[in-house]
Amino acid sequence: MPFEIIRKDITAVHADAIVNTANPRPIVGAGTDTAIHEKAGPELLAARKKIGDIPVGSSVETPAFGLQAKYVLHTVGPAWIDGSHQEQALLRKAYDSALHLAAKLNCKSIAFPLMASGSYCFPKDLALQTAIDAFTAFLMEQEMDIILVVFDRKAFRLSGSLFGDLKSFIDENYVDTAHRAEHAADMGNLQFDRRMEAYLAPAPRRRKQPFWNQPESPAVCEATPAVCQCPVDSLDNLLDGLAPTFNETLNKFLMQHEGKDSQIYGDGCMSRQLFNKIINSKDYSPKKSTVLQLAIGLHLNYEQTQELLRSAGYVLTRSDKRDVVLEYYIRNRVYNVVSIDLALDQFGLACLGKY
After folding, report:
1. Nearest to residue 257, comparing CAs of 159, 141, 314, 335?
2. DSSP type of residue 43
3. b vs e for 91-114, b when ≥16 Cβ sit within 10 Å of the residue's Cβ?
4. I need a surface site. Which of 129, 189, 258, 350 has the fewest CB within 10 A?
5. What is the pLDDT of residues 79-127, one digit of tens each?
6. How crowded is residue 150: how many other Cβ atoms within 10 Å of its Cβ?
7. How far is Cα 336 from Cα 130, in angstroms, rounded to an integer?
8. H or E stretch including 306?
9. 69 and 62 in contact (C-beta within 8 Å)?
């Protein structure tokens, strides 16, 4: 995975670099800043004082001391005012600054909190989207394991019109489908009960005819039994008419895609190594989640997604709530696995990635 979201205390995360949402001045601020300083020990504040003030949107490193990391990247995010003071641009600058500093330090992994979303009052949905955009752009050019640490499930709640519409979409589709399935099961049980009643009922008594009135036994037909004329094609014809394989279908969509490969596996939240393994293997047998990641990375519409899924032996169905959530986001052209996984997580459903 190029980046993942975990629910954990950031001071307990193993990574080469841990990002601290630092105060611009060399003092210990609230929230994550306090937790990191407490775990790292007093040496961290002493090192921080040697740096002095840090501009908003900038990042500076110190040793990590008592933390399970090599470096602490002291990164200053913006305080939220009203959204018209370049807050989002400054937050994106802060993420970019920390990522490029980690690359300069040859870090293989980095852990972030959801910066500026605590005491700086940055709207959590907007802060999350800014983080995702920064990670995706960075990973198109460089390799690094990025971890976004969210303390618990209550740290953020998806909101806004899109998520509200999602809940309505699920209610209108999955619930109705489940009801129809239940109704079909009830009808099936009723039909079964009727068949059993007919089977167990005593057979009607028939008057026995005298032997002289018995019909003559039909002559035994010695002709060759008729061959079944069912319209079943030959096996050879069926094999000749095979649908395109997963590899062939994927290559068709790759040829139609106008962007770079890095955009595909970036938007699909897939490692470059796995992506290369898939496209270079004619016999690769993917999991359903992997196919969906590719479909999202390729920005396929709903019909194209179903085509790619069918080529691998899968399909999105409205009898599965997870599939309904995925259908909703694909139909709304939300092509970001992390955003979709956050919605799946809100409903207690399995994510596409390993979050």
Report:
1. 335
2. H
3. bbbbbebbbebbbeeebebbbbbb
4. 258
5. 999 988 999 999 999 999 999 999 999 999 999 999 998 888 898 878 8
6. 22
7. 12
8. helix 302-311
9. no
The whole-model pTM stands at 0.63
Do residues 42 and 143 touch, judged by C-beta distance below 8 A? no
Q: Which residues are catalytic?
A: 33
- At 232, the amino acid letter reads V
Q: Could you give the CA distance from residue 173 to residue 150 in angstroms, rounded to a whole number?
A: 31
* Token pair for 102: 């980690």
Distances in whole angstroms, Cα of residue 133 to Cα of each of 6, 90, 241, 263, 314: 17, 13, 44, 12, 30
CB of 111 closer than 8 Å to CB of 19: yes
Q: Which residues of 205-214 are buried (b: 16+ CB within 10 A; e: fewer)?
A: eeeeeeeeee
Exposure on the CB side of residue 83, measured as CA atoms within 13 A:
4
Digit-coded pLDDT (tens) for 174-219: 865 555 555 555 555 555 555 555 555 555 555 555 544 555 555 5
Type of residue found at 226: A
